[in-house]
Amino acid sequence: MRVSQMLVPTLREVPAEAEVVSHKLMLRAGFIRKSASGVYTLLPLAWRVVKKIEQIIREEMDRQGGQEIMLPIIQPAELWLESGRWHVYGPELFRLKDRHGRDFCLGPTHEEIITDLVRGEVRSYKQLPLLLYQIQNKYRDERRPRFGLLRGREFIMKDLYSFDRDEAGLDTSYQKMYEAYTNTFTRCGLKFRPVEADSGAIGGNNTHEFMVLAEAGEATIVFCPEDSCGYAANVERAASPARQLAAGQPRELELVDTPGQKSAADVAAFLGVESWRVIKTLLYRTERGLVAALVCGDRDVNEVKLQKALDVLNLELAGAEEVQAACGVLPGFVGPLGLSNMVLVADEEVMQLQDAVSGANQVDRHYRHVCPGRDFIPQLVTDLRLVQAADPCPRCGRPLEEARGIEVGQIFKLGTKYSKALGATYLDENGQTREIVMGCYGIGVTRTMAAAIEQNHDADGIIWPAAIAPYHVIVVPVNSKDTAQMSLAEDIYRQLAQAGVEVVLDDRPERPGVKFKDADLVGYPLRITVGAKAVESGQVELKVRRSGESELVPVAGLTERVKEWLMQL
Ligand code: ATP
Ligand code: MG
Asked: Residue 202 pLDDT more than 60?
């Protein structure tokens, strides 16, 4: 392809709307344009990358016996009512009505529709296992669409569903997908980590998330530094044993002045106590009303654990005004004593304390010598702690480490949740009716592309891993008016294209600086520069985008050398 003919609208300015590197670079390098919040057009370069990622995914799914299909995006509400999710999914579901007033939604995921398919087509154990997948647009009206393709409202996902006779079959399918995902992300050239995303169960293997390690990641993961242990989990789900805290002796409750001391750390310093001794009280709004969550002052609340413990669908931190209305003070002076108008949920560690500090629900005042169980009784005591670096590994006890990750894929053992709800059964060897055991497995294709940029860039632009680069090589004639240079560049371009190398020729009448800048910005793994010397010497400069190293290569051996490099990049 000739750059003069390509739609690659590069920008010199950093677009103001973009916060993260991948979003900025995809706009600047002419990969995407926004159509609406969280909805993007993929321009030719981005579409090529997507197709490459999709191809790798396809090969890995097929290798495990997956069969590709295409399910409808428009899904009838009836199926979602049958599964019970029509009312549970909430505002994230894009809902629409047809001209007859019938309800539909745009698929955010496809468990219902594929279970409906399978219940109609599968009769016998002989038809199982079955691995069906598709690669398609998904629709989720995300509360906060942001970071470009990392969190869109329309995005491309590969979703595979496994159908097995029993749990043992599901284990095998799950293992296959674990392997397929590991191969996929390795082939994409990404540094990633599968982490447990199990709901609190230590060592559980019901679900794993595949995390691309990058600062821009919205997820925090904790992992054991000891390779032989290998524990790694999303912090949302990570478990860690409660600490044994020096509880102290119960003493008489005392009201003390703490002017302007709001955070647990400040109050602790002001009163000269350990920060864990200060009970942090956070108010959440739920469909069951306000809830106060209590954790030790050096901890954060794990909202996923809290939501599960309360069994609520909605959970959001209450705003300052709501807190003021409910407790008579602003956050910072709120405490569990006398909070009779809401549910109290305490972390186990809090209940160990005998001599604690808490807000007094009075401005600039705290209580000292608070004794949980004596001075207040929570309705629920459970594990609410957000695990943090240096907490002990739940498997081996070593201090955990933290990193940030982008969830590019998730594999999940569904069991019989959907087959039960929708009646997807088969007849076993003995003619008994049994429920099909299912799993679901997603990869965010567009998110993977963005994650690759988060992990592979520098100040000048993107650095594509060769396996998913939109093109491998750009040929840049230094002076496009020089016919000798142009014709050598044309020769090289043709020679590489014929050898199957994905190559573009920057034939634009631009200054060399502009062409070099664009080449770096777009992130072609290799650049071949054809200057005046090249014409004389028969040697061209080959430059590697990632390392910046360059070498002179005779034109005759260029294709071989390019191929060698591409194997390594
Ligand atoms: P998240 O927790 O990031 O919202 P999720 O757990 O809801 O994601 P899944 O239902 O597991 O997502 O979807 C499978 C994959 O689809 C995810 O691993 C992710 O790569 C991708 N994905 C999910 N939501 C989005 C989105 N809004 N934009 C882009 N990709 C997404
Ligand atoms: Mg997920």
From this structure: no
Check pocket membership of 407 for ligand 1, CB cut-off 6 A.
yes
C-alpha to C-alpha distances, 86 to 83, 115, 120, 163, 421, nearest whole angstrom: 8, 16, 21, 23, 13
Q: Which of 53, 88, 156, 407 has the most ligand 1 atoms within 8 A of CB, as the residue to mutate? A: 407
Could you tell me if the CB of 140 is within 6 A of ligand 1? yes
Ligand 1 and 141: CB distance under 6 A: no
Nearest to 283 by CA among 340, 348, 337, 343: 343
CA 5 to chain centre: 35
Summary mean pLDDT of the chain: 95
pLDDT reported for residue 203: 41
Pocket lining: 109 vs ligand 1, CB cutoff 6 Å? yes
Instruction: Report helix, strand or coil for 16.
Output: coil
| φ/ψ (deg, to 5) at 337 | -70, 125
416: CB partners within 8 A, 6+ apart: 435, 436, 437, 438
Assign 395 to helix, strand or coil: coil
Say if residue 492's pLDDT is above 80. Answer: yes
CB 446 within 8 A of CB 152: yes
pLDDT over 80 at 556, yes or no = yes
Question: How many angstroms does the Cα of residue 136 sit away from the middle of ligand 1?
Answer: 13
Per residue, the 3-state secondary structure of 275-336, as one string, reads HHHEEEEEEEEECCEEEEEEEECCCCECHHHHHHHHCCCCEEECCHHHHHHHHCCCCCCCCC
Is 261 near ligand 1, meaning CB less than 6 Å away? no
Ligand 1 proximity of 442 Cβ (cutoff 6 Å): yes
Domain extent listing, the chain: 45-70+115-239+402-453, 254-382, 471-568
Residue 24 has pLDDT above 60, yes or no: yes
- CB count, 10 Å around CB of 242? 14
Tell me which H or E stretch contains 81.
helix 77-83
d(CA 444, ligand 1 centre) in Å: 6
CA-nearest of 408, 296, 292 to 361 is 292
Distance 318 CA to ligand 1 centre (A): 26
pLDDT digits (tens, 9 = 90+) for 300-330: 999 999 998 999 988 999 999 999 999 999 9
Cβ 245 vs Cβ 352: under 8 Å: yes
Indicate which residue's Cα is closest to atom 1 of ligand 1.
407
408 lines ligand 1 (CB under 6 A): yes
Shared fold status for 45-70+115-239+402-453 and 254-382: no
- Top-tier CATH class for 45-70+115-239+402-453: alpha beta
- pLDDT above 70 for 560: yes
Q: What is the CATH number that goes with domain 254-382?
A: 3.90.960.10
The CATH homologous superfamily for domain 471-568 is Anticodon-binding domain (3.40.50.800)
Looking at all shown ligands, the one closest to residue 108's CA atom is 1
Q: Atom 13, ligand 1: which residue's CA is nearest?
A: 442
Q: Is the CB of 411 under 6 A from ligand 1?
A: no
Angle at which helix 44-63 crosses helix 167-187, to 10 degrees, equals 140
**Closest ligand, as measured to the CA of 448:** 1
